[in-house]
Amino acid sequence: MISSGLAVSFFLLLHIGTQAFKILPGDSLNHQEITERAILNATLQACRSLALAEGTNFSFPAQPFTAENVAAACGASQSSKTFRLAILSIQLRNIQVDIRYALDSSFHFDGEMFVQGKKIITDGLVAVKASNKMENYETARQKLGEIMHPLQDFYSHSNWVELGYRLPNSNLIREGTSIGDIADKSRATCRSCDGDDCTNNILEDIIAGKILTSGYTGHKPFFSTKPSGKCSHGGILDETSKIDPKGGINKDSFKSSHGHLHTQAANLAIAATSQMLEDIRLAAGDTTFLQMVGISRGSNRALCFVTDTSQSMSDDIAVVKTVTNSIINSNKGTENKPSLYILVPFSDPGFVPLIRTADDTLFKDIVDNLTATGGGDNEEMSLSGLQLALSSAPYNSDIFLFTDAPAKDKHLKNTVIALIERTQTVVNFIITDSVVTNRRKSNSNQPQTRKIAESDAQLYRDLAQASGGQAIEVTKAELPAATTIITQFARSSVVTLLQASRSREQTDSFNFIVDETVSNPTVYITGRSLTFTITSPTGASQQSTDSTGSLITSTSTVGNFKTLQLQKQVGQWGIRIESNNPYTLRVIGQSPVDFLFDFVESSDGPFGGFYSLDTRPRAGVNGRLLVSITGSDSATVTEVALVESSKGSEETLGVVESQGDGNFLVQVDVMPVVEFVVRVKGRVQGSSNDFQRQSPTNFRASNLTLTANSENIFIPGTLLSVPFTVASNGPDGNVTIRAFNSGGFESTFPTTLFLEGGNSTNGTVTLSAPMNTPSGSDVILTIEAESPDGTDFNYIMLRFSIVNSFNDFTHPECELLNRESNCTENCSLTAWNIYVRVTDGEAGVDRVGLIQGNGTFNTSLEAGNTSITLVSYAASCCAPEMEMLVVDRVGNVGTCRFTARDSVSIGVS
């Protein structure tokens, strides 16, 4: 899914004269293009810097830069999907500002709101840097996209370009600095345009005095006003542009009032966005910055275990240890090395804190130290552990949950499903000894007999099916053989070709396409007492009872889980399954070509267009999806279908319309009322066959609508209020409300709300975070609404960044302690060295590094004071300059420059 779980919203503005840079592709540069160009440039700089530090070669890709060729240049082609996802997440949050804050001039630098607009940017930068430091990259991306919008609008909505400036205003991202002289509220800044010609409508004294101004705007006829003599934004939707002085000064597109300056404004916006990304990169470091934008060495997948650590789980824990060591040892230094490791141990009464690290050695040590202990009753907190994993794992992850016990926290089922849908994460349950004698000990040290009730087992099956995963039920002895699925999903670039399930006795046939880019096609079936027939593109077939056929190169069966490795043949395959029991079917392969998608809906705002849903789509009405192809710059989409996933194979086809840059808008006449998956077909340029990809995640539409809005920065010790609205066209009744937050913070909310059919009702959730909550932590709030009869529910998911303080904006200082230099004209025979103390009076020094210079650079901590760093540097007089980067613990960045003879030069980055 494009957005993540997000409280990210997306819309495509379809009108000219919008609040900001034009949105749809065309001759004018828009927020999407400006953002993408800056991210691609910044990513290449980070990869180049990392290569130089490692002593390896780096080559820039051919223009134009794309997510695919930039990822390849960074040596991370397998990250092209996560890179594209990160770019889109940032873009969509950027564009979403035009809906959420459409009438808030501060977010657009309208109405001379320069002080307020700058504060949005600098406060947001604090949050981005804090989130990166805590490795909460999705939270960082969301806030980054949001503050990019006003930064870019500054150049289109103010008169910075008209004042003759050709470089960005660097002080927009630096707290405590001046962005320039701002026009007084009483000072006239514009004259009326000469008809449609607004070329010279800014007053001469404003230009000569380098006075900053921006256009006022209003959208209510007869009620929109502006101060006397002030400029307007301009455009057909701006009612103030009809008031003297008439016209406007925006440069959003070539058709805007100052459209003749659009190119200069857009290029400055790109430069300013790149400058802000550079500040974030220097604060975070190259590797962390690249992780924020979705680039990582090795696989783009996380290895995520949620494991029961109760006393009876010693065999299972031993298998987790074996699998972890095997994956880490066999994939070290390869493209299959997981980019992230996550472990959530749970039992009863709770679960230990989540472990999340990219350090494979550390993760091995943590897993090796897992022990089986406790577990006073039969039920465990399995869904609480899964909820925590889903809240922390990257989008499109695979999670493996090990247990031999029922869930004690069944009330979290809908919350888990909401997280699965929003993150498109696949959850595989590995359930041992569900019906046999277990080894949980009674007080008499005799084995107890426990059987997981069918309803308890079905809960795990339902969640696996919702996510597109498997519910594998085996004995303890069979467990090692069942874990082959983990090693297969740890591979890079795994794609889903087909996903289906059947909940009743029936015979059904399924088709899937293997294209030229797919390798290792594999079929997974969970279920008992079933038979199948595989048919290849040539018409050859092989039955499940035939062990000598040529289509299936290998097969294994353990418990209720069957794996088939297929011979690769390009074209359409078929599989027919006959069963007296429920079963699931999934076909995967490895391919760089995949897709992202999100549901979008028409906006009721003043600018029209579409925005992405962070809830379920509405059932029984028309709907839209935005689909993006990853892994190929030349692929096109020919068909998108919503396919019934559990009871039949009915399809709802959409009308596909290209939006450019690998994006496609899909319109569906009626959203299905049953559970469905998304299937995409298309073709890569030069290929003779179509490709087929499918979402593993199952989705449902809802007759309930749920909306919420709140500031996304959460300050510990304060009360955060989140108002929400529930609406429905169903009958009158009490709607059940639930609210859960991933931080376990204290909260209040109404448990029921009375809702009249065809109307809406409102409620509020409040959250309170402890004062000691670390800055950079994040919390996901899920608000759920369930229909009066319990047959339907919807949710909305909001992500908040925890920030403790906005008071420290000062970068570290450098103090020259000593300089020794005997440089002469014959520089090769002489040397110089310096000794420097780096201090930071508030947060403390976090990192010091060499930017320029080829001498010997060493750092150490001052004795008795870990917040002060001592630097020594020695170099030949033939290299008489050095420059170092200094970063404090909240991400303030500075540079210090020294030469063999001159004094220190200190500045911000």
Structure description:
The protein contains 15 helices and 43 strands. α1 (31-54) runs antiparallel to α3 and α1 (31-54) packs antiparallel against α8 (286-292). The two termini are 36 Å apart. Helices cover 22% and strands 31% of the residues. The model is unreliable at 1-19 and 435-450 (pLDDT under 50). It has a 6-stranded mixed sheet, sandwiched between helices. The protein has a 5-stranded antiparallel sheet with strand order 9-17-11-15-14.
Q: What is the average per-residue confidence, as pLDDT, rounded to a whole number?
A: 88
Q: For the CA atoms, what is the radius of gyration?
A: 29 Å
Would you identify the regions where 5 or more consecutive residues have pLDDT less than 50?
1-19, 435-450
**Can you summarize the main beta sheet?**
6 strands, mixed
β content, as a range? Answer: 25-35%
The proportion of residues forming helix, as a percent range, comes to 10-25%
**Neighbour order of strands in the largest sheet:** 5-4-3-6-7-8
Give the termini distance in whole angstroms. 36 Å
Number of helices: 15
Number of strands: 43
* Shape label: globular
